[in-house]
Specification:
alpha+beta, Jelly Rolls, Arc Repressor Mutant, subunit A, 2 domains, disordered N terminus
């Protein structure tokens, strides 16, 4: 299968086996709570959100408290080719926003979740929960040919960044060396791609959200971190092993994303390969081969990355102690946890905490 066909069919025409069917989308969507935003309408997305929030859009920021809660959105345009939105939401009344994509969109959509429990759903036939309660933080990349829903229950809070990059800028960046990636960028059929956070991306997001919003330097901070993040994402795309990816069909890929969620459910007790094989009806050899092809690393290395990302989140954002994190993530003692953490990040938990302080 060509690379383009692989991306196009990842999340469409899925046929899940009975055992793993529930891993796609477990949230029940109340359509009465959904606000539809059609990006082909003459009224822009910021103006529609401002109306929902009971305020007006001044061209730069929406910072308002309404019946739905408190939203703080900052809008930036860089070099006329990159749009940046910094989202910070506290939901006090259940609400969802469905984004209906532009029919002739000339940009690629990138979303990076820093933290939070607002559910972000890619609305293919199986409604994939890309982010949400208990989900892995990471990067979503799409041409946004399918609707996306941001759905928040009462009491939820989320912080994320949206980047929209014009395709002509990507053409210039990739040049003549990455023709298959350029074909993907311009393919009109829907596609979606996911990457895990690196430590560098997580740190860049921290800088954006921890900066003083009223500071004269805030725009410079957002611009510099956005450029850095884009460089990281472009590296993700160029390092994909196209030959291995071509061997996967759409069913393989959907099953692998379900496996990703399955192994994320309990980071204190890694499931055995045998359990995963039984749960998803896949042979051991195919699981090992396909998982590495899809996510770029062996299953247990990927699991370790999830575990270490959660450890960092607990230490830095939840302010848990090293002992608490070690116990929560199922390590047999603080020294075992510290050794694993240092091996992954190149520094001990204590040093990382001191750096963030």
């Amino acid at each position: 299968m060509r690379l383009i066909s692989w991306f196009v069919t990842i999340f469409d025409n899925i046929k899940l086996s009975p055992k793993n069917r529930n891993y796609c989308c477990r949230m029940t969507i109340n359509e009465d709570k959904i606000i539809n935003v059609d990006h082909d309408d003459e009224i822009s997305f910021p103006n529609k959100i401002a109306v929902m929030a009971g305020t007006t859009f001044n061209g730069k920021r929406i910072n308002s408290k309404s019946q739905y809660g408190h939203i703080d959105y900052h809008f930036f345009t860089l070099l006329n080719d990159i749009q940046i939105i910094v989202h910070d939401c506290i939901i006090e009344k259940e609400v969802g926003v469905r984004h209906h994509p532009k029919k002739d969109a000339d940009f690629i959509y990138i979303m990076l979740l820093r933290e939070g429990n607002i559910t972000h759903i890619y609305e293919s036939d199986s409604k994939i929960e890309v982010f949400g309660p208990g989900k892995q933080r990471g990067v979503m990349i799409s041409n946004l040919r399918k609707s996306v829903i941001n759905y928040g229950a009462e009491g939820t809070h989320s912080q994320w960044v949206t980047l929209m990059i014009k395709k002509n800028l990507l053409d210039d960046y990739f040049g003549d060396r990455f023709q298959e990636i350029k074909e993907l960028i311009h393919n009109p059929e829907p596609w979606l791609f996911f990457e895990s956070h690196t430590y560098e991306i997580a740190t860049a997001l921290d800088k954006v959200f921890e900066a003083e919003r009223e500071s004269i330097s805030y725009k410079s901070i957002v611009y510099s971190q956005a450029i850095f993040i884009l460089g990281q994402i472009f590296e993700f795309l160029t390092k994909r092993d196209v030959d291995d990816v071509k061997k996967l069909d759409s069913f393989d890929t959907e099953r692998l994303f379900s496996i990703r969620e399955f192994i994320s459910n309990d980071l204190s007790n890694p499931p055995s390969l045998e359990l995963i094989c039984d749960e998803f009806g896949i042979s051991r050899s195919k699981l090992i081969r396909d998982f590495k092809a899809e996510f770029g690393k062996p299953l247990y290395q990927f699991y370790t990355q999830l575990r270490m990302d959660e450890a960092r989140n607990m230490l830095i954002h939840q302010k848990m102690t090293v002992t608490e994190v070690s116990q929560e993530l199922g390590f047999k003692g603080i020294s075992k946890f510290s050794d694993a953490f240092k091996k992954h990040y190149g520094m001990s938990p204590k040093v990382m905490i001191e750096l963030k302080s």
